[in-house]
Write a structure and sequence with these properties.
4-stranded antiparallel β-sheet, homotetramer
Chain lengths: 285, 285, 285, 285
């Protein structure tokens, strides 16, 4: 994504002529489409589309685009959005004590493999302060005690708002969030769960996987909803284990899958490649 | 496994000296071990072992081995068995209408990739008769109606016994077996389930996977127990799907995983590479 | 692909407005696009596109489509073709003695997982006659001796022509074809090579892989060109091996990868999902 | 590997009684073997073995073990070594500008996923100084100019010696090392090459992979020998790419494979799980 682009993503009832109308609109303004993806969902009769357009091929900016596109969008009853790749998303990171996902994401941030801003890292432990601060990123320690949960999450919410975070990534944050907070960030809060959902949702998934004697373990990146580990899945992956692997081995091996799956999920989200559709996702990877 | 071998597999309480005693026993009779695998289960304190020994390196046959090994086995409280690779297992195959697993297994049988005898194929449909009979294998059509279930399974049981089947493979057999039959073939009856268990057990797993929006689908080969899709898992695998895949696509793609996972599971079983341990397996693959 | 469709695939110099023009053309005739894929090759400045359109949504047949589309195609300097999913391709199969790929393809043919006709199977050995004839498919034994090579391939060419084969699949055919034959079927003759190309091209790839001590072995499906194992790659896959695997183990394990990779490659070809571009392929899978 | 253990690894001409003798030796001293792996190489007639023994189950330390084991080892003409898991290996890291492998390894070091000491990081660029020094590890900048190569490598050799490094990891170090240095660290110097060897050895492997149009890209961890990218392979892995992936995409995606493959290779080396055998490896993973 080296050249500044607009990403147009939309969905609407499927019918003849949507692609023709959208691509005709873009072409009529000289827009150069570098990537275009479509999906017709047969069951729901809904159509999904994502176009990536070189910004400097267009005679107007984002607001001009939005204004000119609106009538067309309305005529097809589209739900749509336009984003500008030169405006990086602001991602607040929540972590607990385990730092493999955090370390992985900050590496990709450091070497600009993925373009995003990190207004702050918030943790219920002090453990990772120095590593975060080495990166020049503010670190906030917000302990979560049984009796102080509500207050803690009010504070977390305020810290995210203060940092103007437009999305939240739970990079192995081991606390269940209150419903009001997950609703507030609906479709903008990603979690990594350390199992191949829907198997082993909830706590201690590696222990559960060990008990059941599965031969593959996995990880799932999903949008957070009120239902614990029940939100729309963005990406998943697995790796092979065998009878010789203890729970500790599974935890160790699983970390590598968790890192990769979260990084892919975050990438797709940052590049507006994900469209939520009911409790599922369309991912134009 | 071209050269005739004995496979010794055992498990017993873990302690110092088991491998020394067993390998000393084999070596003292000149036995040439071509493959040896061990596993110490820390949680249960149990030790598992499998040795493959060239038959012609030993001065006695299987019965002689068993007789001489018995005192040692008793002194370590071993559960053990010895099998002879020159005596192929007799595998009764149960199928319904879908033939991908059957076709795959019969190909491996035809070209002797895996050594086993097939006394008969039993199906609740006539569909696959000519393909089975082309291979010179008896085909039995045993319809299963709601009111005739018990009688049907008595007949199936009799057919397996008549063919002297020592194990049973459900190669996409779409009927739930009665408890008495699964108990009779405990540890000797393998099933292929078309999901990554424990997710989506029971009927129509691809539909359930589609509904949940998972990004990988899988298959599981397991021993059949009374609990539907709940027995010890032998092998599993998955493949990637995306939002563009319909249930029909998943069924099509899934067939390739089912074939591979069942073939591996059957191979492990035929070569006595699986030791059941509670509701889990040790697989010396 | 249950409903009859037209597949339009094209490539042309990249510029603004191609998708707009094509989709406008289709929409203006009421055409319902069920699948659409695009690719802009930045290096060569070439654009690739594949549309799948429901046949009964159009007011004309294939010839009508071709006639009406021709002016537009010319104005964009397109290389293009239109195929009809109700006209199955005729695939001549060449095999030697090993039947795993043949058996796999014929299974997919038998259960109509892939739609194609098999005018004949040609082999330099008699081995597989009965299995092929069981399927009601003509089997031709054409031995290839050092001195009779040219004559043998003339005969093979005649047999393919007689069966009106429009493409050829070398399903583990262990003879090198003469240049005139590979040129005649350029872009229509697929081979499965039992290594992860470009490593281990030529004869005995598993032996070479074993010698080098690689930790993964693979298979490659590619279009046949005059350069042995050098044509455009359609698909590849690998699987893990270790120090314990002999050449015989690699051959056995490799067969499963070969089957899958060839089946995928053939599927992509049959559904006109592959566009050759120099010595590479664009695969709209 | 939480409990202190000895790792005995050996190889010798294969014959009856090796396992019996070794396990009898260990058992006779009360040694508790927690992991045992064997391999008979049929082609060379050589036997390989690795035992992991709890240190506190033995009545003597490493030197006592070595002394007592020597006669037995001699009688079987063994090549063998004993290592102590409480003595971490000292790993000198060489890097250039790209830090993904370094960052990954230092994360595993930081959270003690793998036990090793890092006496120093040496680089031909200044780029990674602050990140390395954050970890409290000495960073040495040793530029390598065409005319100063020999001197630079003398200095690097001295720095490693000064840090008492007993092995060297080239974590994306983009300089070809002189023969005398690779010979000095034979079997103790690991490299990560960014291709699936033997394909695309040498410079710019992703460009070569892109040119050839392969559908999978890979990475290889191997011991360094005088032959560039020609040493014994420890581990390899691949990931899928398609026509839409540019060289830059391949580089980005490839980094994740490089990290994983190098980390696994280093882990196997650190835990004495690798035995070099000619130009191949036996890896008891």
């Amino acid at each position: 994504m080296s050249r500044r682009s607009y990403v147009l993503s939309l969905n609407c009832p499927d019918r003849v002529g949507i692609v023709a109308a959208v691509s005709q609109f873009v072409a009529s303004h000289g827009g150069w489409i570098t990537e275009s993806s479509h999906h017709s969902d047969v069951e729901s009769g809904r159509f999904f589309m994502r176009d990536q357009i070189l910004a400097d091929s267009l005679p107007f900016g984002g607001d001009g685009f939005r204004e000119k596109f609106e009538p067309l969008a309305r005529s097809f009853s589209m739900t749509w959005r336009l984003s500008d790749t030169s405006v990086p998303k602001r991602v607040a990171l929540l972590v607990s004590r385990e730092d493999h996902c955090l370390s992985d994401l900050l590496h990709r941030w450091r070497n600009r493999e993925m373009e995003f801003d990190v207004p702050c890292v918030i943790s219920n432990h002090e453990t990772l302060r120095s590593f975060v601060e080495f990166h020049g990123i503010p670190f906030h320690h917000v302990p979560v005690s049984p009796e102080g949960r509500e207050e803690a999450f009010r504070k977390i919410d305020a810290l995210i708002a203060e940092g103007r975070g437009d999305c939240v990534v739970l990079a192995r944050y081991m606390q269940v969030l209150p419903g009001w907070l997950t609703r507030k960030y609906e479709g903008r809060m990603l979690n990594i769960h350390h199992s191949f959902l829907p198997s082993f949702s909830g706590a201690r998934p590696y222990h559960a996987a060990y008990e059941r004697g599965v031969k593959l373990i996995g990880a799932t990146c999903h949008y957070v909803t009120e239902e614990l580990d029940g939100g729309p899945i963005i990406d998943q992956d697995v790796l092979r284990v065998d009878h010789g692997d203890t729970v500790a081995d599974m935890m160790r091996l699983g970390r590598d899958v968790e890192k990769l799956v979260l990084a892919r999920g975050v990438r797709y989200h940052l590049q507006d490649r994900v469209i939520i559709h009911g409790n599922k996702t369309v991912v134009f990877s």
